[in-house]
Amino acid sequence: MHRLQVVLGHLAGRPESSSALQAAPCSAGFPQASASDVVVVHGRRTPIGRAGRGGFKDTTPDELLSAVLTAVLQDVRLKFLSTGNVLQPGAGAIMARIAQFLSDIPETVPLSTINRQCSSGLQAVANIAGAREVESMSLSERGNPGNVSSRLLENEKARDCLIPMGITSENVAEQFGISRQKQDAFALASQQKAARAQSRGCFRAEIVPVTTTILDDKGNKKTVTVSQDEGVRPSTTMEGLAKLKPAFKDGGSTTAGNSSQVSDGAAAVLLARRSKAEELGLPILGVLRSYAVVGVPPDIMGIGPAYAIPAALQKAGRLLCGEAGNPCRESEPPGGCNSPGPPPGLHRGKAGRHTAQ
Q1: Which of 35, 48, 97, 253 is the most interior residue, by most CB within 10 Å?
Q2: pLDDT-wise least confident of 55-59, 70-74, 107-111, 194-198
Q3: How far from chain centre, in Å, is Cα 124?
Q4: Bias regions of kind Basic residues — which residues (predicted)?
Q5: How many whole angstroms separate alpha carbon 24 and alpha carbon 11?
Q6: How many CA atoms, within 13 angstroms, populate the side-chain half-sphere of residue 233?
Q7: How far apart are CA 56 and CA 225, in angstroms?
Q8: What is the pTM of this model?
Q9: Peptide bond just before 340 cis, omega within 30 deg
């Protein structure tokens, strides 16, 4: 019946997602604590490496995931694991299962792997589990859609699913009037905030240093320890950003400077019922009140959060910034998508821990 209601909602032009985690409206504040609350109790991540050139360029995703799993799960027993992974090697769940065993998690703990593109990590969290997300963009083949039906050429929406992300960025900028200057200014602010946070040691507690092996240009092996994000560029200036050429089309506004870098990394977030967290004496960093998933046109897929965020807030009984006198607060104070530049899917899991803090 629930699935039927969701389908009917789409047909009626109301593509709101499941209400399974709806909270009671609370205009005067958050609901009172409940023993059944889903709470965030812990989270760790690897540094974010530069794909193809950084410290993780030769490190497989199962090794990256194992590093954060081992750090998070040392003293906690889990009943279920959920992993978000966009660029899935092998048969999808194989990589996550390997990482599970590399972290000495017993085979009796079941596991699933989720791919909701850039929201994979967040979807893993929404599924209520020990949620993880990992990507190795260095070792993954990008730009190949694989075996798809030839009929997609006959369907505009289906055909649009193959549009590269850089072009969808250009489409969003053109349709919504987002100038090159605005994009560069946002990128500069992101870099400045990330650099400030990194210099103050704000990421130190959440980062798991990873010792791994890289190959130089001559094929020689070298052992390195990666302990901080490689995508932070403190020397970024508006003048420098303005000199960069469009990366995806002539006359475009999306450049290497105002885009997120391609990256490697992993993150894990531990969730529990409030009653279990209190029983184990675990810290409660935040409460999962709601989530939302929406569908948007594939040629402007980047607008998804602009529709999903209000839907999630409505379920939680909260107001959007600026609505009904609700004051605005700066979002993502430690950086953002541009810097440190997490890979697809990982940003949401990492942001979940930041939001809880």
Answers
A1: 48
A2: 107-111
A3: 10
A4: 347-357
A5: 26
A6: 21
A7: 10
A8: 0.72
A9: yes
